[in-house]
Amino acid sequence: xxxxxxxxxxxxxxxxxxxxxxxxxxxxxxxxxxxxxxxxxxxxxxxxxxxxxxxxxxxxxxxxxxxxxxxxxxxxxxxxxxxxxxxxxxxxxxxxxxxxxxxxxxxxxxxxxxxxxxxxxxxxxxxxxxxxxxxxxxxxxxxxxxxxxxxxxxxxxxxxxxxxxxxxxxxxxxxxxxxxxxxxxxxxxxxxxxxxxxxxxxxxxxxxxxxxxxxxxxxxxxxxxxxxxxxx
Length: 232
What we know:
Mean pLDDT is about 85; it is low at about 1-30. It contains 5 helices and 8 strands. By secondary structure, the protein is α+β, with helices and mostly antiparallel strands. Strand 6 (about 170-180) and strand 7 form a beta hairpin. The chain starts with a helix and ends with a strand. The protein has an 8-stranded antiparallel beta barrel, surrounded by 5 helices.
């Protein structure tokens, strides 16, 4: 990541903290404040046995919790653009993140074999969190808006879309770029099974047709991934 991108990320993070109230509630019974999430993607390599990689990544997520993250989990690809596993770990602040990094260095990660095809990390700011527990299935959406918009204008459009999906799916999470490879908003919504998904699909299409069909959303590009839970 170049220095200019780091500067943009730091500026936006400060701006968001000053202007946006974080809905950062943890799962019931736990008191930690989940202001950030580390989202990691592990692509299944050509010839790789997904079951073997799944076992390895489950152990990695357990180790990351042991290293000090508030809560970690793992999903895998069902339908979407990338055949991969998707890990998440919540944390409260960068003091905690620093302590985690120092503890994890004792595990000698460079001595391990990389069994996945590629790996991407995103540090995201938790803006809204209505999912109090990890759903069996999620639709994970990435929204990128026009570069000609201001930061506040992008946030307004993300909030508008989030409101629609949150109503249709009866609970979603909203995240925004803090540090990583792309400037985007992320929405994750849960569903029980594909029968339930069909009902929620009808609900969101109804909302979009009635309320947002003529809205100027300035979407540059967008992606969906349907994922199934491995562990939480």
